[in-house]
Each structure stands twice: as C-alpha cells, then as structure tokens.
Amino acid sequence: MRILIVGNGGREHTLAWKLLRDAPEATVFATQPNGGMTSSVEPVAIAPGDVVALAGWAAAQSIDLVVVGPEAPLAAGLVDRLEQSGIPAFGPTKAAARIESSKSYAKTLMQRAGVPTADFAAFTDLGEASAYVREHGAPIVVKASGLAAGKGAVVCDTVEEALQALESMMADRTFGEAGREVVVEEFMGGEEMSVFALADGRDAVLMLPSQDHKRVGEGDVGPNTGGMGAYAPLSLSSDALLSRVQDEIIAPTLAALAEDDSEFRGVLYAGIMLTESGPRVVEFNCRFGDPEAQVVLPLLESSLLDPLLEVARGGRLGGTTLEWSEGAALTTVLASEGYPGTYPTGRAIHIPESVATDPDVLLFHAGTTSGSDGLETSGGRVIAATGLGPTLSQAASKSRAAAAAIEFSGKQFRKDIGWRELARAERAPR
After folding, report:
1. Residue 134: how many CB atoms within 10 A of its CB?
2. Exposed end of the chain (fewer CB within 10 Å): N or C?
3. Is 355 contained in some domain?
4. Are residues 205 and 301 both part of a single domain?
5. Is the pLDDT at 265 greater than 90, yes or no?
C-alpha cells in the first residue's frame, strides 16, 4: 500500500499517524513534511498546492490512495486531476469543495435545502455591507467568503467593530481575495460542536463530535485563530442529537450538492452551534478539522484507512460502523508569539524525553522543521500536545503538563482548553 498525504500541518501529521497504525506495512509519503513527520513518512518535494505536479507524481509512483488534508488544494481541483489520472483520492472535487471555498455559496445552498443556519446576506460592495450592519445592529458576525485559513470569521459585539471588520476585509484586503465578498450573519448563541461526516456522495457516517477553541485567549477572548485546542468526546452530544444532525444537516446538504452536480465524496465537516432551538450550522469545511483531528482520530479504535479507501475507489459506506475508545482526548496547541498575527520562526524547540516517551501523550507537529541544530519553529501553530486518559480531566492534565514542559522562545498556549466541559463534570452529581 502506497499512500500520499497532501499537506504538512498538525492534521496531516495526525492522519499519517493513524493510517500507519491501521496499515503498519504501508509506505506513506507526504508533501514537504514538517519536522515531526520526517521519521515516519517519505518526503515529497512538491508544494501541497501544486496540483499539476502532484497529480503527475502520484500517477508516476503508482500511488494507491491520496488523502488531501488542506482545503486549498481541494478548492484548486487536485482531486479532479487525480481522478483524471486514475488515482484514488479521498476528498471532494473542486465543485463540491465550494461548500468551504465560498461561504456565500454554502449559505445559499443551505437556504435552498432547508438546513438550519444563521440568517445572512452576502456583499461585494463595502457601502451596502456597512448599511446592512447599521440596520441590523450587533452582536453580528462578519465573514470573508473565501478561504482564510480558519481566521476569516469575526464575531462583533458592536456595530463599530463590525464596520471595522468590513473595512479590513473589503478595503484593506486583510485576507486577500478571500475578502472580496463577505457574508454578514446573525449572531447565534450557544456552544459549538464539530462533527466530521465521512461521505460517499449520498450517505455519510458520523464520527465522534468534538469542540474546538478558536479564540487565542483564555476564556475564549481575542481574535480567531486556526484553533488553539480541542477535546472529545462532548457531553452535550447524544444519539438523539446526532440523529438530528444526520437528518437535518448532513443528509440534505449532501443531497443539495448532488443536485448541483457536485456530489461530495470525502469528509464533510459541520461546525454546529447548539442553540436553544436546536443544532444550526455555523459553517461547513470540506476536510478534517485542525486541531479537532488531533483528538478525534486518536480515539478511533477501528480503521480509518478502510472507509477512506472505499470512498476514494467510488464505493459506498452503507453498513460501515466506527468503534471508539471509552476514554477522552484533549489537545493544547503551542503557538509562536504574535500568532495569529505576524510571528517569528527559527526558534529552537526542546522536547523533554519524559514527554516524548509518555504513552498518554501524542505530539502532532504543525509549524516545525528539522534544522541543522535540531527542531525549530517554522509556523504560527507549532505543536499540538494531545493528552489521553480515561476521563477528560486526566487527559487535560497530561496535555497541559506536556505543553508546559516543551520549550521554545516566545511559546504561548491556552491553559483552559475544555473549560466548559470540565466545569460541567465538576457540577455533575457523584
């Protein structure tokens, strides 16, 4: 088995780890792998976004399965090119990836399909968007419609904040072309839940729900990031809730995409707000979440490779069941100083042996590289320290201890990942 993983962040490191556990005999390749991946994968010196070169390389190397991690290569049509070359690929086509690459498309599709989500309006004119905000007031949410690495949504508590967000996106082009069009949404209160659905185009199998922490600061304050940590399982979830998610969100979305000649084969990630009126979609992504993958995949006891191969080869997932650990996982993201803004790189990283060898700690690298003097930082999010345990409290202790012990200059991390869930556990009768 020869597998190519496209991407080189924490999500891709986690995918490589899980697929090698499922198939230890497999040869796993990765595009420009980070410093934590190099010991377990074969490097491919092609950028994840170079879709033409990657499709040609995969065909020449007789790759059995390509798993595309990031959204940008999917939106650029990598899976389309791989399919043209006869290479099985797990991930949606360019057309289906619009569910993430265009928030305005996703919102319109949900509206047409009757999928519960926030009321919205889309704009390409700054003046019209500003007038809408003034009319509707705050709190309100401003989103760049295009791909913005998970940072393009701004929850605005005041009208002035919303107007500044619009100016930043549409005039200053903080997110480049992603902000050429914006979506302005109704604010939804509640807690978020992330659900991955392995989809074969028509049907889907739901994975274990998790919760991500997007804000940079403890207590969920400050600007949005790509994710500062996550945990699973989520006590707010239940079989009844997941049935609603399947019936009211995932199934009608897949059906609407199929009607658009955009059949979705891959992982459909639903970011869901648990409101007083029920689950409502915050956003869809067309790939595994990061850092949610770093807690969901370590708890998956059954094979991930089998359903990925089935989907990539054009099969169906009917009858597929997934088996989960009884325990919990919590991951803490170690980030560079300045993140999610500008940040330095090239800082030496020291990982104590006690952390590296702890069986209840998994280190998934993101922004690291192997320099001449050892491991160095190379990105905003550097390492996700995942703790495992029979309870979330024990998993949190392992994760936080590892995060504190790993050293690099300017390290920042949140010490409160999972704080709502841990508070619920404290209040629960014993």
Report:
1. 12
2. C
3. yes
4. yes
5. yes
- Res. 430: pLDDT tops 80: no
Q: Tell whether 204 and 302 lie within a shared domain.
A: yes
Do the Cβ atoms of 52 and 380 come closer than 8 Å? no
Task: Report angle CA 207, 264, 186 to the nearest 5 degrees.
Answer: 75
Would you state the pLDDT for residue 373?
A: 86
Q: Could you read off the pLDDT of 141-160 as tens digits, one per residue? A: 999 988 887 778 889 999 99
The number of distinct structural domains making up the chain is 4
In this prediction the pTM is 0.94
Measured CA to CA, the distance from residue 319 to residue 200 in angstroms comes to 12
Strands (E), 255-339: 264-275, 278-285, 328-335
Measured from the Cβ of residue 39, the count of other Cβ atoms closer than 10 Å reads: 8
Q: List the one residue out of 243, 274, 115, 101 whose CA is nearest residue 180.
A: 101
Asked which of 253, 288, 312 is the last residue of a domain, the reply is: 312
Q: Within this chain, do residues 164 and 210 fall inside the same structural domain, yes or no? A: no
Rounded alpha-carbon distances, angstroms, from residue 276 to 141, 189, 213, 220, 413: 19, 8, 21, 20, 31
> Are both 37 and 70 inside the same structural domain?
yes
| Residue found by looking up tokens 């993101």 in the block | 366
Strand-by-strand arrangement of the 89-90 sheet: 42-44, 27-31, 2-6, 65-68, 89-90
∠ at Cα 37 (31, 43), nearest 5°? 35
Last residue of a domain, one of 78, 93, 108: 93
Residue (of 302, 309, 311) closest to 64 by Cα position: 309
* b/e code 312-335 from CB counts within 10 Å (16+ = b): beeeebeebebeeeebbbbbbbbb
